[in-house]
Design a protein that fits this description.
With about 425 residues, this protein is mostly helical. It is built from 19 helices and no strands.
C-alpha cells in the first residue's frame, strides 16, 4: 500500500475538522439566543440555566469521556461520542421551552465531552514531544474556526428556513463526522500508510514500552495536575462567555440586529484562530531564543496570553459596538493562545495512556468555572451590567498564569526568564 508522506498532518486535519463541527454544534444555541428568548419566551436568568445545563453535564462527563477514550481506544471512542453529540444537537430542533432546551443541552454536554481529550490524545500519539504544542495549537484552532463559521451559517439557516432547521442541519454534521472518523482514523501502530521514517520520527526520543492501563488515581495524585486544573477553572469562563453570551450582549445592550451581528460575529473567533496558531509556535520560539526548558516555554506563552486578556476588560470604556467586537477579538486571541498551551502542558506532564483522562479532569475543572460564571452573569447582567463581569475575565486569566508559574514552573534562573519574556512580549 502506498505510503502517505506527512501522514500525521492529515490526521491532525481530521481531528481539527471534528473540533470545527463540535463547536458549530455547541455555539448554535448562543447565536440563536436572542431569537429563542423571544419565540420560546424565557428570561436572561432562564437562558443562563440552559447554558449551565450544558456546562454542568460537560464538566462532569469530561473525565469519564477521557477515561473511556483511553480505555476503549481513540478510534472507536471518538466515533461513539461524535455520533451521540450529532444526534443530541439535532434534537434541539424539538424543544418547546427552556426546560426541554436545557435537557437537550445536557445531552449535548455529555456527548461532546470527549472531543478535546481525544484531540489532545491524537496530538500525543501522532507527534513527537517537540511538535506537540504546534499540533495542539492547530487542532485547538478548530474550536475557534467552528465558532467563526457558526454565526453566518446558523443565522442564514434560521433566517432562510427556521431556527429548528438550523439545529437539525448542524447536528447532522456531527453524525457525518462520526462516520468519517471511523472510516479514516487508525493509531500509528495500525496505520498502513504511515512510512517507517515518519513512524521513527514520531517516536523520536521515546522508549517503546508496553504501557499500563489508564489510571484516574495516578492522574489525581499529581500536584501538577491540580495546577493545570486550577488554571483551567480560572480561564474557561472567558471562552464560555464568548461562546454563549456575546450574541445576547451585542443584541440587547449594543442594539445590533441579528443580521448586523452576523457580519461581525466571526471576528472574535478569527482572533482566536490566530492566537491558537501563534501560541503553538510561541513555545518553540521561547525555548530556542531564551534557552528555556519545554515546560517553561509553555508557561511563558501562557503569560503573554494572560496579559492580552486585558482587552475584554476594557469593553465598558468604549461606546462603539464595533470597537467592543474588536476587544472581544483580542480576548479570543489571548484565550486560545493560553488554552492551547495549557493542553500542551498536559502532554508534557502525563504518560500517553493517561493524557485523555488528565485532559478530561482538567476540562471538568474548566467547565465548572464556566458554569459558575454563567450563573453569575444570569443573576447580575440585568442589574450591574455585563461590562464589570467582562473585566473579571481579565483578572482570572492573569491569576491563572501565576498559578501555573508557581506549580509547574521549573525553578532557577529560567523561571526569571519566563516572567521577563512574558511581560516583555505583552
Amino acid at each position: 500500500m502506498r505510503k502517505i508522506r506527512g501522514l500525521r498532518w492529515y490526521i491532525l486535519a481530521l481531528v481539527g475538522l471534528g473540533t470545527i463541527i463540535n463547536y458549530i454544534d455547541r455555539n448554535t444555541l448562543g447565536i440563536l439566543a436572542p431569537q429563542l428568548k423571544e419565540q420560546l419566551h424565557f428570561s436572561t436568568e432562564q437562558y443562563s440555566f440552559v447554558v449551565a445545563a450544558f456546562q454542568f453535564c460537560y464538566s462532569l462527563m469530561q473525565p469519564i469521556a477521557g477515561f473511556v477514550t483511553d480505555l476503549i481506544g481513540l478510534r472507536f471512542g471518538y466515533f461513539l461520542f461524535a455520533l451521540l453529540w450529532g444526534s443530541a444537537a439535532a434534537l434541539h430542533a424539538f424543544a418547546g421551552g427552556w426546560q426541554s432546551m436545557a435537557f437537550f443541552r445536557g445531552l449535548l454536554g455529555i456527548s461532546e465531552a470527549a472531543a478535546i481529550p481525544a484531540g489532545v490524545k491524537t496530538s500525543t500519539l501522532w507527534f513527537p514531544a517537540k511538535e506537540r504544542s504546534v499540533a495542539t495549537g492547530w487542532f485547538n484552532t478548530g474550536s475557534s474556526v467552528g465558532a467563526m463559521i457558526a454565526p453566518p451559517l446558523v443565522i442564514w439557516l434560521a433566517v432562510t428556513w427556521s431556527w429548528r432547521l438550523a439545529f437539525l442541519a448542524t447536528g447532522l454534521l456531527g453524525v457525518g463526522m462520526s462516520i468519517l472518523w471511523l472510516w479514516l482514523y487508525r493509531n500509528p501502530e495500525h496505520a498502513s500508510r504511515l512510512s517507517d521514517e515518519e513512524r521513527s520520527y514520531i517516536l523520536s526520543g521515546e522508549q517503546v514500552v508496553t504501557l499500563p492501563k489508564p489510571s484516574m488515581k495516578r492522574v489525581l495524585s499529581q500536584g501538577k495536575f491540580w495546577g493545570i486544573a486550577a488554571a483551567r477553572f480560572l480561564t474557561e469562563p472567558a471562552w464560555q462567555t464568548f461562546s454563549f453570551w456575546i450574541p445576547l450582549y451585542m443584541v440587547s445592550v449594543r442594539h445590533m440586529d441579528i443580521k448586523q451581528f452576523a457580519l461581525f460575529a466571526w471576528l472574535p473567533f478569527l482572533g482566536a484562530d490566530l492566537g491558537g496558531i501563534l501560541g503553538g509556535y510561541l513555545s518553540p520560539f521561547f525555548s530556542k531564543t531564551f534557552k528555556m526548558s519545554l515546560v517553561n516555554s509553555r508557561i511563558a506563552g501562557i503569560g503573554v496570553g494572560a496579559l492580552c486578556m486585558i482587552g475584554p476588560g476594557l469593553i465598558g470604556l468604549v461606546s462603539s459596538p464595533i470597537t467592543a467586537i474588536l476587544l472581544f477579538s483580542v480576548g479570543g486571541f489571548a484565550h486560545q493562545m493560553l488554552s492551547g498551551l495549557l493542553y500542551a502542558l498536559v502532554t508534557d506532564t502525563f504518560e500517553k495512556q493517561d493524557v485523555a483522562t488528565a485532559t478530561g479532569y482538567a476540562g471538568m475543572a474548566g467547565y465548572l468555572g464556566g458554569l459558575s460564571f454563567s450563573l453569575v452573569i444570569g443573576q447580575l447582567a440585568n442589574t450591574i451590567g455585563y461590562e464589570p463581569l467582562f473585566a473579571c475575565l481579565s483578572v482570572f486569566d492573569i491569576a491563572a498564569f501565576f498559578v501555573v508559574l508557581m506549580v509547574l514552573g521549573q525553578r532557577g534562573h529560567r523561571v526569571a526568564r519566563v516572567t521577563s519574556a512574558a511581560t516583555g512580549a505583552g
